[in-house]
Each structure stands twice: as C-alpha cells, then as structure tokens.
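Bug #77: duplicate submission created two jobs. Keeping one. Sequence:
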Amino acid sequence: MLLNLIHTSPAGAQTSAPAGRPESPQSVSVDDVATIRAQLAEQSNAITRLKALEEQRAREKSKVRVSGYVQIDWTLHNQASQDEINYSTGKPLNQDRFTLRRGHVRVDAKRGLLSGALEIDANTTNGPQVRPIDAEVSLHSTESADPSQPRLTATAGLMKIPFGFEVPEFDVDRPFLDRSTVMRALFPGEFDLGARLLGRYRFAELAVAVMNGHPLGDKVFPAVAPNRTKEFVGRLGTHAEITPAIVLDVGVSADTGNGFHEGTPTTKDQLVWRDDNGDGIVQATEIQVVPGSSATPSQQFHRFALGGDARLAIRFAPHAELNLRAEIVRASNLDRGVEPADPVSVGRDLHELGWYLGATQEITAFGLIGIRYDRYNPDQEASEQRAVQVVPRDRSYSTCALLAMLRYDDARLAIEYDINRNALGRGANGAPTNLKSDAITVRAQVRF
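Kept job's structure:
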C-alpha cells in the first residue's frame, strides 16, 4: 500500500521533514557559507589585534632599564701632594690616595612617546657625597629609529649641557680619565637645569637649550640661579660616513648669558693696631682707622662662548680603530670652574681661550693607547707689575695626558700620566713659574 502511494505521488511534489528534525545540509546556500566564513575571519583578525595590543602594552610597561658603573681611582703619585692641611679651606693637601671617583646608578623608563631618566652619583672626591647627576623627562615626536625620518625631542630637567663634543660625552665612554682643562673651567660639572630641544634629520643634529647658567660644578653658585636671566646654549653638528671605514663628526657651538657679581654689605669703621716695632706695647703711631663702607648692589655681566669640534674615526681592521679628536673654544667671562671670572671686580672683561688635540688607537680587542694635549688661558690680557713696569703675564694651564688601557667585556683598567704645566708658582726672583703637579693615576672601571 505504501509503495503504491509513493509511486502514485504527483511528479515534482516534495515531502516536508517531520517537526523538530533539522534541515539537511543540502538546504544551506553557498552565500550563507561565505557569510559565515567572512564572520569567522573577522573574529579571528579581531582576536589577533587584541593579542598584539596586549603584547605591546606589556612591552611598554616593561621598558624600564637599570644600569650604572663604578670608577675607582688610585693616585700613585702627585707632585703637588703634601701631608698638610689647607687652613683656608680645611681640606687636606694629600692627593696620593684611593678615591671613589664616580659611582652611578641610572634608571631609564620609556612608554610610547614619553621617556624619563634618573641618575644618582656617589663619590668621595671632596668627602663622601650622594647627589642627583641626571634627572630628565622627554617627549619624542616619533618612535621610529629610521635616520631618514626627522626626529624631535623636547627635554626638561637636569641634563648635559649641549656644547661641543667633550662636555656631552659620557664619563663611562670617554677614554681619558677626565675632561680637558678648558671644558672643566667653562662647563664644570657638565650638567645644568633647564629645557632642551633636540632635532635630528639624516646626517644633521641641532640641540638648543635654555638653562640656569650655573652647572653642578660651579665654584660660586652650583646648581642654583642667583639671577633671573637664563643662558642660551646650543650645538649644530653633522655626522658623515665618508666610507664604511671612515667616519667624520663636525660641530659648532655657542653659549650666551649673564653672570652674577655678588654685592657687599655695609661695614662699620674699625680700629686696627699693628705692632710695627714688635715690642708688644700699643703706641699712637701703630693705631689705624679703617673707614667703613656703604653697601654695594649685586650686578650682572655678559658672557659668551664660541666653539668648534671635530672627530675622525678610521677603522683599519676589527679592533684596530684610530680616533682623532680636536676642539677649540673662545669665551669671555665664562670661567666657572678653574678661575671664576668676575669682570666687575677686575674692572675689565676676561677673555678665555682653550683647545685640545687627542688621539687613541685600539690594539686588539683588549688594549688601547692614547695621547691628548690641552691648553687653556683664563685671561689673555693678564699683566702684572714688575718694578716700575707693567708686563704681560701668561696664566695658561696645559696638560699632556699619556694613556694605556686594558679592556675586557664591560671592565677597564687604565693608567694615565699627566704632565701638568701652570703659572701658579713663584721663582726666586718673584716671577711666575710652574708649580709642579704631575700625576700618575690608575683607574678601575666596571659597568653593569
């Protein structure tokens, strides 16, 4: 009976599936399958993007780096060393000693276009001290490291002074134990408070900063600002790869601002007794009146500096690189570290001139030798009275540094012999002469 019904069904008639039973796969169209596949692909891409975003955020949160280095000096011999005390300052005159020259701990952090750094220095150069040496916050225009793309960085805080090559150079990278005399005189401490704009494009670099004008090593007002006016300093440099083995860096720098002359308070009249004949008895002719004086106001004076620097690196073979460096600076009233300039007290401007020439040669991966000669004159117009004549006086400082260094991984062991010449001594005839101060120093350094 059933068979007959099937065979007798009209042609083309369709039977519906029982209620509750799913349709057969043949009932799903090709368009529906394509839509489902597209939705699955979109969901997969979204998941992939979310994972990448989470990984990026995790990397950004972990971009904190801790580094540092330690430099221990042993002054084997210094000709100026004495087992005595300088009673005007209360400091010992002995220089033959072990010294913690620098002990730095640095923390760098970066997230997106923002970065920051904090560096602490511990040393025993003038007794134990711990101080901030670098503390800055920066905003970057782009995260790209491609030199063909222009990059701009704005920084504020305690930072390196962007003048010349030797001042911004890191102490842990510099081959010679200390900077040249001219840089220690004009930019003592190398760090100052202010704001800086740094731009890089291809082979050119421009750094412009506005700063307090009193670096950390200023002998009069270290790291403070006694006057409202600020100092403007900057450097324009270029980096040229002449051949893969020859690289040339050249730059020009400028600095302009105002120095500060401290005024004097009001003084009263004073009676002074001078025992001229040494008899211990007060006599009328031995009493003098020192008249008082009225207060004098503080004053500002203009100062500036112009400089040029050049560095040439020639690689003859791996670990056989020759580095040549030179720098010259012409300045006025800018000495803040060796003989602080005060034209108000002297009654005229003080013109400074300094320069240096240096060379280092790698000897395999473990050795390096170097030589540097620097010369600095804190007052080119200096003169003195001799008998009835006023004659010029050369007040120049010069140093010839001879360096030998052993290197292994992140450790160094260097010995430097400094041949120092100056005009701080006096001869038997009273004329200026060299005060012996040659020194031999050994430095052990390790970075982490």
